[in-house]
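For the sake of transparency, this paper describes our internal protein records without simplification. An entry from our holdings is shown next, in its original layout:
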Amino acid sequence: MKVTPLTIPEVLIVEPVKHGDDRGFFSETYNQRTWHDAGIDLVYIQDNHSLSVAIGTIRGLHFQSPPFAQDKLVRVTRGAIWDVAVDIRLGSPTYGQWVGEEISAENWRQILVPKGFAHGFCTLEPDTEVQYKVTAPYSGDHDKGLKWDDPALAIDWPLSGEAQLSAKDQHQPLLSKLPAYFHY
C-alpha cells in the first residue's frame, strides 16, 4: 500500500496493491494492521455505496458536525469521479482551500478525507459506483453541507453540461455563512 499526502497534507491518496492475471485481479482494499503500520489509526464502523447514473452528477459537498463527524475512505468500483475535499477547520492555514483527485475503478486509488473537511464528487462516467467507509454513524441532525459552486471556493468541477444535483445540494450554504463546526 502506498500513501501519498495531497497539497492539503491531511487528505491522503491510498493506493492498495492490485494483483492481476488472466483470471482477473485480487486486492486487499483495507487491512487494519497495514493501515496502523502506515500511521493511520481509524476505526471504520459503516460502509456506504452509491450509484450515480448520469455523467456530471455532483454529490456534495457534505460533512457531519461533531460529535458525529466522520473520516471517509472513498473508492470507486465502477466508473470514475473527480473527488473534492474542502478544509472547513476554522484557523487552519488551508481553511477554505480544496484539493481534487480523479478516483476510478481503473486507477484503483482511494482518498482519505478526514474530519473537518467537506467532501463531494462529480461523476466522470455513467453508472459510477462509489463505496466509502466512515468512522461515525449517520446522524440526520448532524448532516451538513456546503454549496458546491461557492465562488469563494472556485472549485474546478469537470462539467461539460449542467450539474445533476439533489434538492438538498441545491440549497447548501456558502462558506461565508457556514458556522464554525471545526477548529484547527
Notes: The mean pLDDT is 97. The longest strand covers residues 80-87. The chain is about 5% helix and 40% strand. The radius of gyration is 16 Å.
